[in-house]
Amino acid sequence: MSYASLSVKDLTSLVSRSGTGSSSSLKLPGHARPVKVIPLQHPDTSDDARPPSIPFDDILSGWRAKIKRMSLVDWVETLFPCFRWIRTYKWSEYFKLDLMAGITVGIMLVPQAMSYAKLAGLPPIYGLYSSFVPIFVYAIFGSSRQLAIGPVALVSLLVSNALGGIADSSEEELHIELAILLALLVGILECIMGLLRLGWLIRFISHSVISGFTSASAIVIGLSQVKYFLGYNIARSSKIVPLVESIIAGADKFQWPPFLMGSLILVILQVMKHVGKAKKELQFLRAAAPLTGIVLGTTIAKVFHPPSISLVGEIPQGLPTFSFPRSFDHAKTLLPTSALITGVAILESVGIAKALAAKNRYELDSNSELFGLGVANILGSLFSAYPSTGSFSRSAVSNESEAKTGLSGLITGIIIGCSLLFLTPVFKYIPQCALAAIVISAVSGLVDYDEAIFLWRVDKRDFTLWTITSTTTLFFGIEIGVLVGVGFSLAFVIHESANPHIAVLGRLPGTTVYRNVKQYPEAYTYNGIVIVRIDAPIYFANISYIKDRLREYEVAVDKYTTKGPEVERISFVILEMSPVTHIDSSAVEALKELYQEYKARDIQLAISNPNKDVHMTIARSGMVELVGKEWYFVRVHDAVQVCLNCVQSSSLEEKKPSFLRRFSNNNGSSSYNDLQSYNTLLKEPLLPVEK
């Protein structure tokens, strides 16, 4: 396909024809050299062509095709992911590693589970219950081979906050019943989201929101445990102000023995944790730290019997029994908290599981993982467990201990079972301050000040989001903090979507490459031509913004370095649409209006490189015929060549001496050498002259 430049009269005629929907090939009369472009293939929009598909139809057809391809083994592995590692298990190579990893995590989990149960406002035994059945269930239905599930600090705080708003702290039985019901609700939500593959919804929450929320929650958790160090009760709250006020108000009741013991154990825990992280050969210290603190505290309490140090007290011996929640009266009240805990599970547990899977080179489906967590919580709730999820610290220890399969989780579950059967009589001597020290040590790493410094250095907007979320969580509570953080996160997403990045493109010297003139100052534009790239899908929410920017660029483009013949106004606007992944009907109608507006001002619209779906939508709307098929191009460079020849021809007609104009009219053409004498060609020709 070849194009030649137009005279002013021909150009006006061409714009008029394209406005009437001409779809014939553009035959450009005139005098300048021909220009070669790559022809763009337009889609078939006839009735026989495949109709536009509904996204759900594509999803369902994909599922049907996948189901047809699945064999019996595939079905078994889908329902029971544990069979993926059972079939390929190498006993001589894996068993020793799984055994050591399971024992290590189990030793770490026993004291942590009891500590987190106290944080949740429950008796310590329920922390062990929550670490027993869910672990066995997850080993069967979970996809991750290194993820260590059980009670965690953040979920325990959410449970405590939810239960504190419903029942008084003195109503222990109601607290336990509500916590078990909460585990059932969380499990059901996780299963539903996993089956419907809705885990992607949480992607709209910024990482800075999660980091700010977690950091603030860690501070609240730490302050809530200070009462065991100080020796007196403080207000039960998820807000920092009431906690600090009650700590100051009760200062006259301060007792030294629990403070000294708790501080000593906390220092030992921190030292062992940091040494274990720093030196690989001593990494066992990190896992052994909680058990060391418990043993030390229990020994001191058993030997010296200090009266001012409170102990855990009697703990029931034996495995949990099967029971179904007796009442669902408070289910509606607990739904927001269960949704929040499910969100934490997706963001933390699934995120950790995917990272560990990538590190250990096996595939993991996030929705299948979410379903496995849901089944673990549902069945766990039938055996007196409160909500469980993946633990970052224990999963890191499991991975560092080189756990290879889910067998390590089964071994951890066996250790918890043995503790319930044989060790509970010893647990009654554990000091409360020792459990508090374990919690404080665990959450100290959740205060992500490094992330705040990084965000301040890299992205002030994300730092603002981090600050807003952490501040509102600290001063107004967990629910308000989450809502505000998520609200601002969604507002930023909507703002970015409604105000997409749009760039004026210029040509890099010596190339046929066009880039953002702000990013590449050496790039130059052409007089009379505006090239604009839209870096986002075009839809009803952002089309007005895009139209406003296009109108501005007609004027603003003059400030960039320009080449080509001198012209008084813009004659062509080229839209580079390769980054546009989707365009809706509202945007198409707006583009039609924009085209008509351009047409009224003698400006020709050209479109470059729309993708298949966008091109099909435009074609079905009739916009291809409206603009003219000849004004759709494969490359920006092709569009520029055609538009530039038109601009050059217009300039030549205006600058020719009268005798040359008469000569041109009489002969109908002029030689390329004649045109060259007027120095209207580019210093860098678009294409070599055809002989």
From TrEMBL:
Membrane topology field: Multi-pass membrane protein
One Pfam family in the UniProt entry: Sulfate_transp
Keyword Cytoplasm applies: no
SUPFAM superfamilies attached to this UniProt entry: SpoIIaa-like
Superkingdom of the source species: Eukaryota
Keywords from the named record: Membrane, Sulfate transport, Symport, Transmembrane, Transmembrane helix, Transport
Gene3D superfamilies per record: STAS domain (3.30.750.24)
Boundaries of every STAS domain copy: 519-643
Keyword Zinc: no
Residue ranges of the TM segments: 94-114, 120-141, 148-167, 179-200, 212-234, 254-272, 284-304, 334-357, 369-386, 406-427, 434-454, 474-494
Subcellular location: Membrane
CDD domains: STAS_SulP_like_sulfate_transporter (cd07042)
Protein's recorded name: STAS domain-containing protein
